[in-house]
Amino acid sequence: MSVSTMEAALLLAGVLFMLGLISVLIRRNIIFMLISVEIMLNAAGLAFIVAGSKWVQPDGQVMFIFILTMAAAEVSVGLALILQIYHQLKTLDSDAANFMKG
Amino acid sequence: MSQTDFLHLMPLLILTVAALVNMLVIAAWRNHKIIYVITAVSFVAAFLSLFELRGITAYAIDPLFVIDGFGVFYIGLILATALLISMLSYAYFEQREEQKEEYYILLILSTLGACTLVISTHFASLFLGLEVLSVALYSLISYLRTRERSDEAGIKYLILAAFSSAFLLFGMALVYFSVGTMTFAGIATAMSGLQELPLLLLTGFGMMIIGIGFKLSVVPFHMWTPDVYEGAPAPVTAFIATVSKAGVLGIMIRFFLEVDGFRYPTLITIFTIVAISSMIAGNLLALMQKNVKRILAYSSISHLGYLLVAFLAGNQMGVEAITFYLVAYFITTVGAFGVVAMLSDKERDAELLEDYRGLLWRRPWTATAFTAMLLSLAGIPLTAGFVGKFYILAAGVSTQLWLLVAMLVLNSVIGLYYYIKVIAVMFQQPETEAETPKKRLRPSIYLASVGTLVVLTLLLLIVGVYPAALVEIIQNVFATAPEMVAR
């Protein structure tokens, strides 16, 4: 691949990252916030793969597998917490789960 | 990996094994005391195994780790703090009926993550260390799940930590895209010819700073700090305030010195703004709080600002000052949260200022220890905090950072006010007769907590009155790691 396709691919990763960033900021449902964060993480993973293939090294894909594993661990803890919150509040609105202020 | 590699990684291996042993023991026989003893012994064993590595120059396990004097000292600091926190945790969790054994597994795992961080020399090991630290922390924060605020604190920390990890990762990917290697040494070589940072690399560094800034809870990435400090159990709060920040700060110093990031005015400007706003915002917001945990949270934000002043000095003295200040700050913070943990009852933590009214008359020794800790946080002479702050000032003056030094002095004065306010509340006569004390555990359970608090208070005074011993240790450590202080 030529360098320009590499930069296009990096741009795609950047756009995905921005989409995730915007949606984590505007979404109020905790599950959707979690999904948006996952999109950001995977965008970073995509950027690593692009960088790895630019330098023809496996390192980028290795990092992607690390990211995937970490995201899975994070989601499992996150969903457990969300279940707890739902049991207590009967809603997943992040504004409802905001008692601590100041 | 060769046998010597394993020997050099002994502290990390001990922690890994301890986590597994704890898990198996819990499966066989659930007993708080046994798990607690295993945990404490493994921390001590890991700490002692560091003495084998004393005086080491730099042993590289390419490409992921390097074990040098700096790393050994930080691992030692992290392990000692984790040990003290586990001591304080025993009585705290003993009075709560929930399943308390798994707490220690998580504590060991996040300590392992912090230790991995400070010896990393590669993005992959940096990332792994950081995530082992954070994922264990999510569960630790929301560990007392029947408390209404713990879930909220846990999910807030989880979303924001994952959010900041994404920034860090994207930044790392951009740096990798520009230079073609993920080792710190490789990045340093690639950057050595650059006078100005190209846009892609600058964006990468900027995003990494955002990621690191969240973990360090510096302004403007500090929003989660007070909520998480308030919602988490007191020993876990102590852990977040100390161990997790030491790990992240350690890797930040290592990376920045290695790639010599101080050459670039843009990065210096970013850090200067962050440092000044952390000091000011942390102190001003702390003035308005009525909750002791939140006061300590905002005070930790401003303390991170002080640490960045020494970081910006960027010379050997700056690194020494950071290390000294961290030691002093850890003694103080663990002590302060230890007092909060001691005073907490089954339902909630003793976090409101009201809980401390007249404490001096009810529990004079605890109040004295807490007063000593608060005075040290404020930086009053004869305490460790004063010497630490003095060291940072000296480092700032040595590199003519006049603006930062002036802000530091000004903020120390503002900070004094809210520390004194807490102390004043403790000295007030209680208005009403104290209610009958709630059912407490056998006094022997509190032995470990009381002992730890005594040790911490003594350390605080010893470091404050006779800092030369600690300074000498720190200087020796950095003398054996020449490439760290090449500047």
Automatic annotation (TrEMBL), chain A:
Membrane topology qualifier: Multi-pass membrane protein
Gene3D superfamilies found in the cross-reference section: 1.10.287.3510
Pfam families: Oxidored_q2
Primary localization: membrane
Signal peptide span: none
EC number(s) stated in the UniProt entry for this protein: 7.1.1.-
Superkingdom: Bacteria
Keywords associated with the record: Cell membrane, Membrane, NAD, Oxidoreductase, Quinone, Translocase, Transmembrane, Transmembrane helix, Transport
GO molecular function terms listed in the Swiss-Prot or TrEMBL record: NADH dehydrogenase (quinone) (non-electrogenic) activity
Entry's transmembrane regions: 6-26, 31-51, 63-83
Enzyme class: translocase
Catalytic reaction equation(s): a quinone + NADH + 5 H(+)(in) = a quinol + NAD(+) + 4 H(+)(out)
Subcellular location: Cell membrane; Membrane
Role played: NDH-1 shuttles electrons from NADH, via FMN and iron-sulfur (Fe-S) centers, to quinones in the respiratory chain. The immediate electron acceptor for the enzyme in this species is believed to be a menaquinone. Couples the redox reaction to proton translocation (for every two electrons transferred, four hydrogen ions are translocated across the cytoplasmic membrane), and thus conserves the redox energy in a proton gradient.
Protein name per the record: NADH-quinone oxidoreductase subunit K
Gene label: nuoK
UniProtKB/TrEMBL annotation, chain B:
Pfam families for the chain: Proton_antipo_M
Localization in the cell: Cell membrane; Endomembrane system; Membrane
Protein name according to UniProt: NADH-quinone oxidoreductase subunit N
Membrane-topology annotation of the record: Multi-pass membrane protein
Transmembrane segments: 6-27, 34-51, 71-91, 103-120, 126-145, 157-179, 199-224, 236-256, 268-288, 295-316, 322-344, 365-388, 400-420, 445-469
The entry's keywords: Cell membrane, Membrane, NAD, Quinone, Translocase, Transmembrane, Transmembrane helix, Transport
HAMAP family: NDH1_NuoN_1
Reactions performed catalytically: a quinone + NADH + 5 H(+)(in) = a quinol + NAD(+) + 4 H(+)(out)
Source organism: Pontibacter anaerobius
Species classification: Bacteria, Pseudomonadati, Bacteroidota, Cytophagia, Cytophagales
Major localisation: membrane
Family matches, as InterPro entries: NADH-Q_OxRdtase_suN/2, ND/Mrp_TM
Enzyme Commission no: 7.1.1.-
EC top class, as a word: translocase
Function of the molecule: NDH-1 shuttles electrons from NADH, via FMN and iron-sulfur (Fe-S) centers, to quinones in the respiratory chain. The immediate electron acceptor for the enzyme in this species is believed to be a menaquinone. Couples the redox reaction to proton translocation (for every two electrons transferred, four hydrogen ions are translocated across the cytoplasmic membrane), and thus conserves the redox energy in a proton gradient.
Subunit organization: NDH-1 is composed of 14 different subunits. Subunits NuoA, H, J, K, L, M, N constitute the membrane sector of the complex.
Family membership: Belongs to the complex I subunit 2 family.
Residue ranges annotated for the NADH:quinone oxidoreductase/Mrp antiporter transmembrane domain, each copy included: 120-415
